[in-house]
Amino acid sequence: MMRIYKISIISTSIFLLNLSLVFAQEIIKTNLSDSINTIYTESKPMISADGNYLFFARQNSPDNVMGVDDDQDIYVSKYGLRGWEKAINIGEPLNNEYPNGVVSVSPTANSLFLLDSYDNSKKEEGIAVSNLTDSGWTVPKKVAIKDFYNKSSYIDYFFSTSGKELLIAVDRNDSYGDQDLYVSKKDKEGNWSTPINLGEQINTKRPEFSPFLAADNKTLFFASMGHENYGNADIFYSKRLDSTWTNWSEPQNLGPDVNSEGFEAYYTIPANGSIGYYVSAEGGREGSRDIYSITIPYQFRPDPVILLKGQFLSENKSSDSIEYNVNFLTTSASESEVNIDYEADHFNAILPTGASYFFYVNKSNVISESHYIDLTKQKEYMIETADIHTVPVQEGESFTSHNIQFEKEGSEFVMSTYFELVRLLEDFKQYEGLQFELTGHAHDFEDSLQNLELSKERLEKIREFYVQQDFNEDQFILTPKGDVELNQDDYKKHINSIFNVNNRIDFKIISTNWAEEFKLAMLSENTSSSLSSGSSASKAGNNQTESEDIVIKNYSVLFDFDDVVIDENQKSLMELNENLKKGYIKGFVLTGHTCNVGDENYNRILSEKRAESLKNWLIKHGVKSENISIEPKGELNPIADNSSIDGRKLNRRVEVQIRN
């Protein structure tokens, strides 16, 4: 019955999917409500990536900043439970006495790119950017473009979602006729290059204008009077075929359901690509141009993208603001196709599908957790969240890696793991004095002993990788845990991932000055060796051997039944603490034991936990973690008869071997 039930669900899903595909081919054109459109001309709509905010321009309205003589002001509406709310004038400083308009919206909708240079000393064509703060929109700042000029009376702009390309509709010396579409590229220094003509596949002898590049960074929508159309100006779309920005597919007219004998332009769509907004002269209020929406058939939709939202979670308690930079590495999409938009302690990113992405925070004096997202098979738009946790580079701080992953039931790295290994390598080289305790968790087998051994093998594999990169093996203290601890963090980082979140590696910073401490230790050992060789002759004369210098002492720390809590009132611990204060103890071997009550595998794990508990006690009393080793024996080596209560009590112990 279970299998039949599953098949029934899948069949129903396929039927509904096919049904939705059929209906999705129909274009439904809607004149937006009076909340948006008026008897005055509405133009230049620009939708936010999440589809929640619509910015547009209204011409010669009495509600404009300068009244009916004001050529064009910016208005904004928010999509609520009842649809689009009544649009409001966005006000100063974005609206002034010149024609104003929004040409692009950042993914967070907290940065607007604006028509006009906003140079108060003179009126000149250009583009500016304004950011939303707690006190409102900032004064727009001009964006400079190299070798910029325009011979036309009209101009349009659009910033790509990558933030690295700027599309411009202008008339220049190399134009094919009137307005052509151009691209200006942002270099590493943040400067915008001389505009490059998109080529004759896009541009004609008549005007091409109102460019809009979809979130996939490939699909271009624009208005044209030169390509074959139904009347005045029609909306077309074309696909970018390579990275040159001059190679495009043949432009396609969106058809008579969108275009008419009149004027259609200024097409804009949210990141999900399902609803389009544009300006049409057909059917506008009292003959004006209104803003319309249309449902977009799949044939006109851009490639799907993922809208990724995240928060920066920091252990740094400093009141100073922290500027984050998120690094994205990807398997196939070029770096320019990832756009990241920052807002205080949040970020938004638009990721094209068809690739997998690995990303993390790159900032000095902190180490971040990382994310891996596999979008190679993703076919639909999706909104996802992925918070990034960072910790300061300080002793005692710890973080978890879910992206050091291995072949199932094995210790060979999966390919994506090298993203994580290499980016941590960069951090480790930057702070070469770091020493870590690596705790491994494995949940591949049903048997706990197998998982314990597997976690040990995987930790050794990690250490081997870094030793091959010229690190010292003593910089990595290995603590295998097997499957005794499930993942406790609210982990939403592996979107669409096949990884088991319980399989993970914990990193704890034991020292930030290991290199210096190591040099001092080597110097001390060399000095001791020299002194030892000098005293050997004296001891030989006294019929003494060098082995008499080595003092070995054992303690036994007892535990209650099925417990790992240490009773510090034990005589052995009091004596051990006194010796620790003298400072000459160098190394410890902690061997954990249990009585024979319970499962053998469980008892082995319990013996390890007892040894771990005593290890933590020693660390609190000044012993370095790297000087402590653990051997879990479980119930294998009893020192008393397990058939009696007193005997079992003696067997529940951790034996401590100390070397002077």
UniProtKB/TrEMBL annotation:
Entries under Pfam families matching the protein: OmpA, PD40
A Gene Ontology term for the protein's cellular component: cell outer membrane
Location, primary (coarse class): membrane
Subcellular localization(s) per the UniProt record: Cell outer membrane
Domain OmpA-like, first and last residues per copy: 546-660
SUPFAM superfamilies attached to this UniProt entry: DPP6 N-terminal domain-like (SSF82171), OmpA-like (SSF103088)
UniProt feature coiled coil, ranges: 442-469
InterPro entries per record: Bact_OuterMem_StrucFunc, OMP_bac, OmpA-like, OmpA-like_sf, WD40
Keywords: Cell outer membrane, Coiled coil, Membrane
Protein's recorded name: OmpA family protein
Protein species of origin: Marivirga arenosa
Source taxon at top rank: Bacteria
